[in-house]
Amino acid sequence: MPQVLQFGPGQLRFLLAALVVVSHLTGLNIGRPAVMLFFLLSGFWVACLFAGWQTGTARFLASRLLRIWPIYAVVTLAAWLLLRLAEAPHPADPWSALALIGLAARPGDVLGVSWSLDIELQFYLALPLIAALMQRLPIAVLAGLATLAFAGGIALFAAGLPTLLFYLPIFLAGVAIHETRWQPGRPLMQISLIAAIAFGAVTAMLPALNGLLFKASFADSVAENMGHMAWVLLLAPVVAWNVHQMSDRVDRWLGDMSYTLYLVHLPVVKLLAVIVPMTSAGVKLLAVVAILLVTIAVFTGIDRPIEMWRQRLWRRPVAQRPA
Predict the structure, then answer these.
(1) Domain boundaries, the chain
(2) How far apart are CA 114 and CA 116, in angstroms?
(3) Is the distance from CB of 215 to CB of 29 less than 8 angstroms?
(4) What sign for the dihedral angle of Cα 25, 30, 35, 37?
(5) Which helix (H) or strand (E) holds 38?
C-alpha cells in the first residue's frame, strides 16, 4: 500500500477534520461523511475509555463533557463576538449554542458544526446504558432494540429532529469494533478502501446519486443521509485497522488538534468572506493558511491548558490511548 495509508489514529482524525474544511470551501459534499466517520471512531475510542474507567459513571460523563465543552464555549463566544463586530451572519445570541444539548434540532449554531457535538454528547450520555444492555441481553435482543431505536431515529430525522438514534448504527459499529477486538488485516482494509472509492465513483457518475458527493444536488433527506451512512460503514474495516496502528507523539498531537481545527475553521471562513469573496482558488488557499494559523494558536494557547487541567482532575485509564 502507498505510504500515505500508514496513518496512525491521530492522523486519520486530522484528515477527517481537513475533509470538513475542504467541504466548506468547495462544492464537494464530503463533510457529512467525514463527520460520520468521526462518529464511528468515537464509538470505538469512547467505548475503550469507558471500559477502562475506574472512578464511576458520573465522573466519566463529567470528564467527557469537560473534554468537549470548555474549548467549544470559548471558541463559540469568541466567534459570535467577532462575527457580530464584522457584521457577518450570526445568531441573535450565543446562549442556545452554549447549551449544546439539542442544538442539532434547533437554530443557534454559531460555529456551523455544533450539531455534531450535540450528537456526540448524546452518545456519551447513552453509552452507560448501551454498555449495560450489552452485558445483560442476548445479541438477537440487542439487534432488535437497536433496529427499533434506529427506526425511531429515522422518523425523528424526517420530522426535522436529528438525534443520536439516527446515527446509532455508526456509533454502534465503533463500539462493536472495540467489543469484538476486531483487527482486520491489510488485505481486508484494502478491499474496504477500494469499495468506498468505487462507491464514491458511482455516485459521481449517476445523477440520481449526485447529492451524496455534490452539494448542488444534496437535499439533506433521510435517503441521502442513509446513503452517506452506508458509504461510511463500508470503511469500517479501514477504521478497525487504523485504530490498532502505532501512535507516536506527533500522531497524538495531530489527533488532539483535529478538534480545534473542526471548531475554528468555519468562523474563520465567514470572517474572511466579509473582506473578500470566497470564490477564487487564491483566496481559498489564503483561508486555509489562516485556518491553520488560528488552529495552532487556539490549540496551544487555549485547548492544551484546558486539557492539562482536565487530566489533573481525572487520571486517564491505564493502557488507553488519549481521546
Answers:
(1) 3-313
(2) 5
(3) yes
(4) negative
(5) helix 31-52
Enter the C-alpha cell of residue 229. 451512512
Instruction: Compute the radius of gyration of the chain from its Cα atoms.
Output: 19
Question: What is the enclosing helix (H) or strand (E) of 131?
Answer: helix 114-136
Q: What helix, strand, coil percent values describe the chain, rounded to 5?
A: 75, 0, 25
Cβ-count burial 186-203 (b if 16+ within 10 Å, e if not): eeebbebbeebeebbeeb
**What are the start-end ranges of the H helices in 53-185?**
57-85, 95-99, 114-136, 139-158, 164-179
Which amino acid is present at 121? L
Report d(CA 298, CA 308) in Å as an integer.
14
CB 96, CB 108: distance < 8 Å: yes
Amino acid (1-letter code) at residue 119 = I
DSSP 3-state assignment of 28?
strand
Q: What letter does residue 81 receive in the DSSP assignment?
A: H
Query: In which residue ranges of the chain is pLDDT below 70?
Result: 1-6, 314-323
Query: What b/e string do you get for 69-104 counting C-beta neighbours within 10 Å, with b at 16 or more?
Result: bbbbeebbebbbebbeeeebebbeebebbbebeebb
CA distance 26 to 111: 18
| Model pLDDT for residues 172-216, shown as the tens digit of each residue | 999 999 999 999 999 999 999 999 999 999 998 988 888 899 998
Q: What is the pLDDT of residues 37-64, one digit of tens each?
A: 999 999 999 999 999 888 889 999 999 9
Is pTM beyond 0.85? Reply is yes
Torsion sign, CA atoms 25, 30, 31, 34: negative
- Looking from the CA of 19 toward its CB, the CA atoms found within 13 Å total 17
Q: How far is CA 140 from the centre of its chain?
A: 29
Q: How many Å apart are CA 255 and CA 15, to the nearest integer?
A: 9
CA 189 to chain centroid, in Å, comes to 21
CA–CA dist 17, 265 (Å, integer): 9
* CA–CA distance, 72 with 68 (Å, rounded to integer): 6
How far is 167 from 123, CA to CA, in rounded Å?
Answer: 9
